[in-house]
Amino acid sequence: MRPEDIDLVVQLCAARAGLFVDPGKTYLLESRLGPVARRENFGSIDDMIAALRAKREDRLAWAIVECMASSETAFFRDRGPFNLFRDEILPTLARLRDGEPIRIWSAACGSGQEVYSLAMIIEDQRALIPGAKLELFASDLSERALEKAQSGLYTQFEIQRGLPIRQLVRHFEKADEMWALSPRIRQMVRWRRINLVADLSAAGRFDVIFCRYVLGALVEPMRARLLENLARALSPDGFLFLGLGEAAMGLSEAFQPVSGRPGLYARNPSFRAAA
Amino acid sequence: MKTCLVVDDSRVIRKVARRILEDIGFEIAEASDGMEALAWCRAAMPDAVLLDWNMPMMTGIEFLRHLRLEPGGDKPTVVFCTVENDIERIREALDCGANEYIMKPFDGDIIASKFAEAGLI
Hints:
Structural class of chain A: alpha/beta
Number of domains of chain A: 2
Number of helices of chain B: 5
Order of helices and strands of chain A: HHHHHEHEHEHEEHEEHEEE
CATH architecture of chain B: 3-Layer(aba) Sandwich
CATH topology of chain B: Rossmann fold
CATH class of the largest domain in chain A: Alpha Beta
CATH superfamily of chain B: Response regulator
Distance between the termini of chain A: 44 Å
Oligomer: heterodimer
C-alpha cells in the first residue's frame, strides 16, 4: 500500500469511529482490506482506495472502517467479570429492580461471544432469580459482525476458547462443521448497529454495560467521549465493565472503580451528564 | 508441581501435548493406551489425565470407567482430547466422569483454556 493510501485509511477510521489504526502495521491493514476489496469487486486494495478518493461513497467508506474495527474475542473472556456478573450483580439488580426490566448492553459485541455468555448465565440462573425480567442488547459498528453474531454459528476453534464443555452440551448443537447456539439463547438478544463515539442519546438507558477492550482501540481524544457517552447511557446505580487494565486510559470524571472488583466501574455520584 | 499423564497412541501427539503442558507448569508422564495408563495410575495417581479416545488394547472411555472405580481414582481431573466430536460422545464422556473435553485439532490456547475450565491452572 502507498503511504498516502494508508494515511487516508487511518484518518477515515479516526474521523468516523474514533478508531486508532497504526500506520506502521502494513500487514494488518492489507490482511483486513484485501477481503473487502475482493468482496467489493476491486482488482486490488489500491483500486479500492482510488475509488474511495474519487467518489467518497459512504457505503464503501464504512466497509473499510468496519473491517479495521473488528477484533478477536472469546466466550467468558477473562472469566472473572462473568463470575462477578453471575454471583453479585445479577442477584443485586434482581432485588433492587423487583420485577422492573433489567437492561444489559454488550457494546462492541463483535461476533457475539460476550453477549451469548451473558445469555447463558441468565438462562442457567433463572431459577435463582424468579420474577426478574432481563433484557439483553448487543451492538457493534460492523454489520458483518452483527450478521455473524446473530447467526449463532461458531467454528470448533471458537467454541473451544472459554466455553466450558457442559455449557457447550447444554446450549449448542452440531451443524455440519459448525456449532449452532440454541434458538432459545439466540432469541434473548436484541441487536443494533451503533457507533459508540456518535450521539448515543437514542440508545436508551441500561443497568449494566459491558464495553471491554474498546477504549484501547480508540484514538486518545475519543476515549473521554466514549466514557461520557456510556455514563449517560448507564442508570445512576448501574455497572460498567471495562477490559482488565483499561482504567489506566483515563477514566475521566464519569466513573470510579469498584474496589476489589477488577474491571468493574460505577457512575461517579458527582458526575452530571450534560443535557 | 502438578503431574499430568498424557495418554495417546500417537507419539507425535504425546510430544506436542508434553511441550504445551510443560510450558504451563506440569510434570508429564506418557502412556500409549488405556491399559498402560491404568498401570501408571495404580503406581502413582496423577493430578490430571489428558486422554485420547481411540487407542489399541484399551480405549480412553474404558480406561476412564476403570479409573473411576480405582481407590483414589476419583481424584484426577480427566480432560479428553480426541477427534470424536459428536455431542452424544461428549455426553457419554461426561457421564463416565470426564471433567473437560477437547476436540482435535488443538493448540496451546485451547489446552490452557480447557485446563483452566477444569480448575487445573
